[in-house]
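Appendix C: a fully annotated inverse folding record. The material below is reproduced so that readers can follow the format used throughout the book. The structure is listed first as tokens, followed by the designed sequence.
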């Protein structure tokens, strides 16, 4: 059992690392449990990031996260690449456990993020970042004048497909049913776009390609027949799942499973527990908004600690 830390940050990515930068600069000596495999968050699987302020020529996602981690360490953050296995957030002090150690903390910032739902088909994981994407605003620019596909039938899929028509020559929307789940306004917007073509009653059976996406194998949900769709990119837009498995029995969650905070604060339903980033935000899900949320959490914790003193 370790000494009691003023603050332990669970998770990394833009939210966790920004929270670490701010709490470290405030002299709180935060411990950041960044994760072993997931350290750096979703941007570790992104290629060039062109929309993060301060990098006019763009920056690779992993480089941006490495820079953030180094900046946090410069101010005294203790980043440990360990996976958290359990948390007791109702205890005083809070208890955060990994396979290697147990940490006690006066305050905990939860920045565990969210994860894109995957198709879980052959070729998807292998070609992630090489034609397979989960973020149109992140990667759409790289498919200028190309034919691509969007998988999904909800509002997020229609939003992605419509956005991608700014770059692609054609966008196929592949949906397992013969009508959309999207809201009327989003569906009408997609239907009225000449660049969007719907492929109904179909699911992706396989993502094909050697070093990059070349085509999709589609399976009919009506008769099971297979067909090939030549595309150079596929955007999976079937939703997100917040990473709340460690806290779902302890913190209040909304109907979509995201942690509820006392806006504009980042306070959760438990005293001395704050949350930031994509585990809270199911609307914007951008690196810059996650970083801003991490800043808010750090300032909230700093202010609370000052009040405790």
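Designed amino acids, in order:
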């Amino acid at each position: 059992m370790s000494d009691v830390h003023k603050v332990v940050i669970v998770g990394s990515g833009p939210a966790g690392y920004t929270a670490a930068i701010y709490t470290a600069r405030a002299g709180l000596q935060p411990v950041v449990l960044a994760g072993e495999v997931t350290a750096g968050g979703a941007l570790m699987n992104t290629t060039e990031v062109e929309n993060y302020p301060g990098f006019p020529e763009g920056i690779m996602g992993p480089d941006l996260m490495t820079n953030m981690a180094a900046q946090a360490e410069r101010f005294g953050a203790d980043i440990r690449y360990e996976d958290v296995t359990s948390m007791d957030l109702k205890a005083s002090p809070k208890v955060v456990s990994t396979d290697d150690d147990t940490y006690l903390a006066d305050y905990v910032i939860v920045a565990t993020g969210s994860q894109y739902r995957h198709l879980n088909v052959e070729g998807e994981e292998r070609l992630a970042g090489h034609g397979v994407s989960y973020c149109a605003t992140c990667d759409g620019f790289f498919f200028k004048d190309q034919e691509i596909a969007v998988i999904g039938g909800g509002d997020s899929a229609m939003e992605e497909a419509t956005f991608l028509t700014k770059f692609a020559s054609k966008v196929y929307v592949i949906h397992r049913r013969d009508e959309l789940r999207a809201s009327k306004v989003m569906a009408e917007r997609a239907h009225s776009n000449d660049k969007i073509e719907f492929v109904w009653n179909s699911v992706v059976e396989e993502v094909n390609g050697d070093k990059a996406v070349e085509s999709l194998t589609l399976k009919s949900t009506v008769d099971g027949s297979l067909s090939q769709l030549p595309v150079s990119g596929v955007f999976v837009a079937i939703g997100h799942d917040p990473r709340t498995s460690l806290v779902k029995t302890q913190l209040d969650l909304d109907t979509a499973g995201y942690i509820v905070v006392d806006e504009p604060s980042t306070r959760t339903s438990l005293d001395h527990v704050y949350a930031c980033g994509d585990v809270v935000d199911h609307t914007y899900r951008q690196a810059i908004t996650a970083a801003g949320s991490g800043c808010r959490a750090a300032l909230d914790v700093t202010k609370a600690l000052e009040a405790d003193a």
